[in-house]
Amino acid sequence: MNQQMKQLVESLTPEWTAWRRDFHKYAESGWVEFRTASKVAAKLKEWGYEVRAGKEVVRDEARMGVPSAAFLAQQEKRAVEQGAEQEWLPYFSGGFTGVVGILDTGRPGPTVGFRVDMDALDIQESEEADHLPAANGYVSVNPGMMHACGHDAHTTIGLGLAQVLMAMKEELNGRIKIVFQPAEEGVRGAKAMVEAGVLDDVDFFFSGHIGSGVPLGEIVCGARGYLATTKLDVTYKGYSSHAGGHPEDGKNALLAAASAALNMHSISRHSQGSSRINVGVLQAGSGRNVVPGSAFLKVETRGATSEINEYMLERAVQIIRGAAAMHDVQESIEVVGMANSCDSSSELIPFIRSQAEKLAEVHTVHDFVVAGGSEDATYMLQRVQDNGGLASYLVIGTTLAAGHHNEKFDIDERVMAIAIQTYALCALHAGELEALGRGKSGSQGQDGKITE
Amino acid sequence: MNQQMKQLVESLTPEWTAWRRDFHKYAESGWVEFRTASKVAAKLKEWGYEVRAGKEVVRDEARMGVPSAAFLAQQEKRAVEQGAEQEWLPYFSGGFTGVVGILDTGRPGPTVGFRVDMDALDIQESEEADHLPAANGYVSVNPGMMHACGHDAHTTIGLGLAQVLMAMKEELNGRIKIVFQPAEEGVRGAKAMVEAGVLDDVDFFFSGHIGSGVPLGEIVCGARGYLATTKLDVTYKGYSSHAGGHPEDGKNALLAAASAALNMHSISRHSQGSSRINVGVLQAGSGRNVVPGSAFLKVETRGATSEINEYMLERAVQIIRGAAAMHDVQESIEVVGMANSCDSSSELIPFIRSQAEKLAEVHTVHDFVVAGGSEDATYMLQRVQDNGGLASYLVIGTTLAAGHHNEKFDIDERVMAIAIQTYALCALHAGELEALGRGKSGSQGQDGKITE
Amino acid sequence: MNQQMKQLVESLTPEWTAWRRDFHKYAESGWVEFRTASKVAAKLKEWGYEVRAGKEVVRDEARMGVPSAAFLAQQEKRAVEQGAEQEWLPYFSGGFTGVVGILDTGRPGPTVGFRVDMDALDIQESEEADHLPAANGYVSVNPGMMHACGHDAHTTIGLGLAQVLMAMKEELNGRIKIVFQPAEEGVRGAKAMVEAGVLDDVDFFFSGHIGSGVPLGEIVCGARGYLATTKLDVTYKGYSSHAGGHPEDGKNALLAAASAALNMHSISRHSQGSSRINVGVLQAGSGRNVVPGSAFLKVETRGATSEINEYMLERAVQIIRGAAAMHDVQESIEVVGMANSCDSSSELIPFIRSQAEKLAEVHTVHDFVVAGGSEDATYMLQRVQDNGGLASYLVIGTTLAAGHHNEKFDIDERVMAIAIQTYALCALHAGELEALGRGKSGSQGQDGKITE
Amino acid sequence: MNQQMKQLVESLTPEWTAWRRDFHKYAESGWVEFRTASKVAAKLKEWGYEVRAGKEVVRDEARMGVPSAAFLAQQEKRAVEQGAEQEWLPYFSGGFTGVVGILDTGRPGPTVGFRVDMDALDIQESEEADHLPAANGYVSVNPGMMHACGHDAHTTIGLGLAQVLMAMKEELNGRIKIVFQPAEEGVRGAKAMVEAGVLDDVDFFFSGHIGSGVPLGEIVCGARGYLATTKLDVTYKGYSSHAGGHPEDGKNALLAAASAALNMHSISRHSQGSSRINVGVLQAGSGRNVVPGSAFLKVETRGATSEINEYMLERAVQIIRGAAAMHDVQESIEVVGMANSCDSSSELIPFIRSQAEKLAEVHTVHDFVVAGGSEDATYMLQRVQDNGGLASYLVIGTTLAAGHHNEKFDIDERVMAIAIQTYALCALHAGELEALGRGKSGSQGQDGKITE
């Protein structure tokens, strides 16, 4: 194990803990990570990174599930009040809250990319005494927003990694890219960064999640089996009328929504692999004696492959539209999230294993885990693999106080140092990967040219 | 009571009984009354009536629920074999099985119209010994066709009326029109005769039904409250696939039909009056392990007014189409029947009562009954009333062996003489009605011109 | 027209206006009319009425749609802060907010009853300048509660009537009962007062509503055609699971609710009269990627008769339970409101007309109006009629700024004086009604004994 | 290749062809294979087999989808008329149409089992000239029954195998059991033979299907991935009423069926493997204007494992019952078929391959195929494997004139000799399998004791 890194980590750990708790306290949900992103950008700049931020790394048309302009403006104001770095806010204004830090060694070598996500969830954090953040004064001060999935730690891991790599710059070759992504919850943000070309020059790519059922001291080198998914918001507009006096004047949006929900769940299984459909939320109507004039549904489709997800999505949209036609109401369908199905590159697994096994804090290393759900880092893995690169999504174990997305979710903060070191070792030893005959763009030399 | 009529009726009754039993034995369903209509036309001609038949009195485009050409041809052949009057068949070929008999006295006076219907039902008649037609050898010889509603008697009543009126021609004024309608079951035939202009010159119009819950010896002068109705046949064509092997290839017509049925029944009530919807039949799919590729529904809507029926129909069609769109199947909708809402003219009631009370066989006369269902004579009533005429739909009581549409339905045949005499008296005394200031077209003289 | 009354009304009108605006400002929704009811009780007591309040006039088990204990307690505290008459609060504590004022003349004569209602709606009142209550400083200070149906005026009319009758006590005979009912909205309160026996000794009964589409200066003597109705809150409890990872573990409450909604709307029409069903609100699920573990529906049934409503209700309950069984979820059904179908007594109409025509402010008097919806005063009319008494529900016209239940609803306050005088005249002349041979209990003398 | 066998096959082939065409002509559907089974039993007896037949090998209570007693009796009569072996009919009477032939060599060695099925499908065979059986005079004479899946050849293969093995008896050791199963279509018959203990002493078991997409000259040694399945017939009994006159009196079985169908298809996917649901047939209602009083559904569930099928089945039954409760109709559910999920034993594959490769007529041998559907031989494979034996389900290729279950289905009859030889070689070389340490019961010697 690298002695220099060990000392660095020891000295920086208190700072990392402080940052994570600060991000936790000022939890910001997807596309309004104004304060978080500004802190990230300012630090990267300070440490000597080339920083790209905002529209340069987040393609406008590819963003999904962006809140209303009014909410964005209000949240930006809130971020200012909570100490955002104001010189960076113009980049993020309007919800372009992505940041990329680049370290170019000037030496030949591959481009190694890392990705962390920054957004909180729409959950009201517990204020009970047995919840550590509440007891220790860093419970979220933003109502209805909470880091209940660990992205506060992810952001900190990205920053810690940036510090360590800059400190050990002389031992690196090629280029390092650290991607700070907004709006992972609801799988809304990755696509916009991929479409902005952020991943196009990356030869070896690493992302990951802490926890996810893996305890502290264990690492999984690669996840596979992520389901492709699409998230839809559906609104039906009908016409309200008095249910006693003039029921025939109504156009019943509730019945349209009920029919759509039932029929979407009845979409046929697919013989070529797993599929899923869920109408997770249905809200319709205003009063008991009023024919319901409006309805709203939150829907998601999934598939073992993008083709199967596409099949589910196409059928769902047919049903949503047919149900509207049935009840003579107007539908509007908004795609508010998307992710690919994607597997980690098997060629990377032994390499990651060999790095992870160098850490004294890690007692068990697993090759693979089969993912249950969806994750939009898959867009990034896919883009890297499509360009001939290798990519993997790790799970870095940490023991949890309560499950992900629970109002008492909490982590063992020691996971951050483990993750930072694992990633840093991957970067420092990336040269070994070139033997795999992959990562061609990187081998084209020190010009670091972007292939797109 | 008219003595001449009494003697006539007495002498003709055995013949009427024989005719009714003959029609009963050779029961013919809607639009294939080839044998029945040919017998009617031949007799009317023989007795001196001006006879109009076929397309002249049945407008092609207004016919509904006409069977396939193959079935029509096969049935025409069957009629020949069963002794149809062959010189009349060319008129009826292709399903134009309507007949009108006209008696013009040459004297000034109103045009008085009567209508009877001739079709049987798609029911297999009972052959059990306790069923009189079976015991006495006039059970239907046509499989799946049975006079289970009494139209065999109606046809006979029309013929008997024609005989009596011709015999008493010198006591009549104006003109007499006796309309023999096909395809009343499923309310398919009346509209085509109305659209052919058959009712356009009628000043006073009488139609009616025997039985209907009224016992022998009682007469109801006028029915009201018939619901407007539309009958639809709906077919969904999807795509079959193996339910185990490739369910995703299927386009599920059964689920489209199920959704349509549920949602049609959920069409909102109408605040302005009664409405009805019924999916009476749903047949879908071919095998247990096959995604159903086809479905068929028999649907009807009703309304207290034509507007309400229109509202129900429009909503039903939206739902049928929306359900098809939902499940990506093709729908086809055929209107196979229609009837108006319509009330008997109240001005006619005292007149009819006074005629009916002349009969010794009638001990009770009711003014009105509220109809539960639908009947397409309403199109004829409506047309007469729209032209300033008066019209009524009577019920002539007869005690039944079993309910209408039952496989053991049977009547007390004495009802025929009662009906014939009631109608004949209405014709003989129609002059009294002119005092009501109605029936203007008739008063235009003996030219008998058709107003359309 | 009575001169004394005219002067009284003139002098009292400013006070009435002030009261109405005070009630408007401190709008209180159903079962939490703590402040309003305490003001009413205190004034009646002050004026010499025998006052009955709380559980004595509101039967606990017959109350419907009562809020949670916590909400009741919080609202009682709120009422104290807003100046409720504290000596009366113990009567109302826990939501027994009914009051009855009795004036016994000691002279023989009928018992004449009046009923007004006191509750506000769950609506946020408009604060825009063109809304008079906002402009003039008596907009509701209670968030989400607003007198948008005119019950503030109804309460004031009850009080004004009490003042006038007490002042003219010497011209009265028999007994006067003025009933101040809570929770009319959602038809929740009348039944509890009827079941407490409040109406059992009333011979002639008058209630009514201001506005309802009738302009100022017009009066309708009797409403009929109120639909019987039942209001249900339905909750489904299923089991949530991750829609991607373990969908089969879920018990889907949303699909149960959707099936229930669709199938309830498909309950068959009734041939004996109007029926209605409405699922006005459906709320289900918590997150897009979670199998929905809970759902909530607001349902109402209606019928032209109580039998038809009963039929609708029974079918709705079967469907609610069957849908729960289908999806293996637990249902709970709460009846939160009920009203009878009931007609005003036609014998009362000429009497009311003759009183109303005495008022100079009234230029038009209608006999009847057909009600579109439901109203729980029908329980009271029914009880009085069942006991051999006569009862009517009037409409006292007033020109509205916006429709009932709208956030800018406002009345022409002059209606209050018109209503008070109409009611007072009915009380003063009730003796004339005894000629109708009704109101027997009242004629039994001054003991005021309750007949039940 | 065994010379004796080759000559045997050559000489017997014309006989086999004749038998297959005879079975084809007298096609008999499931549980009424009276003629076929009697021919099989008579021949086996004649050749010296120990024959077990009827209830001894078909357990009554485990039979599924048995036709009505009337139909069974009528078909038995039909079989007599078509030349059934009358001495065997008493065994089969009532639908116990299974036969087992046993050949005990008296020498130590394993018990080797084979299974063929005998039933035809409910399909009307094509009589067109391009359909060989029609052209050559052996088209099915039984209306609506046709060997459209090749079980006529299967039966012949079982008989041919019996002939060959008896002829080569001296080269065999241990025991041979040839099972002739009724009612495979609809997966109704295997369970009853397994429950009768027929498979309990079998060490090595072979069954298979001809065709299935594999052309003549190819053999697949083992099929896997059969889905467990359950077949349900569902009947709803409601109450019919006139849809215009008294709709409220009806209990709508069609709406119950429609709700059940929609909701069954909406049963959640299972995360542990494939699942299927199909409502293949829905028939409801009698007439357009009648509230439908009855409905019938053919349903099937499937699962990659028996647990998943169980989950699907349990949910389906809940929904069927809940839908009945919703619409106040009576449901009845009959299980009319069942099959396991089951894989062929991989240890058998190289053995089968080595036998198949001996045949000159076979040019290609595949190890495995993944089955799309379901097959009830899986019950037999399972029972053998549970007892420590080995079992495989083969596919013996034959080129088809039209797909399975098509009215023009026809085979290349040369497949029969290939199948017979493959099976015979498996029997002759079964001793080699004992090296696998399986088939212990067989090694216990010549007592042929049943191990269970």
From TrEMBL, chains A, B, C, D:
Presence of the UniProt keyword Manganese in the record: yes
Cofactor remark: The Mn(2+) ion enhances activity.
Cofactor needs: Mn(2+)
Gene Ontology terms for molecular function: dipeptidase activity; metal ion binding; para-aminobenzoyl-glutamate hydrolase activity
Domain of life the protein comes from: Bacteria
Gene Ontology biological-process entries: folic acid catabolic process
Annotated ranges, domain Peptidase M20 dimerisation: 233-322
InterPro entries reported in the protein's UniProt record: Amidohydrolase, Bact_exopeptidase_dim_dom, Peptidase_M20, Peptidase_M20/M20A_hydrolases, Peptidase_M20_dimer
Membrane-spanning residues: none
The keyword Manganese appears for this protein: yes
Gene3D superfamilies for the chain: Zn peptidases
Residues involved in Mn(2+) binding: 149, 151, 185, 209, 405
GO CC field: cytoplasm
Alphabetized UniProt keyword annotations: Hydrolase, Manganese, Metal-binding
Classification via PANTHER family: PEPTIDASE M20, PEPTIDASE M20 DIMERISATION DOMAIN-CONTAINING PROTEIN
Name of the protein: Amidohydrolase
Organism: Brevibacillus borstelensis AK1
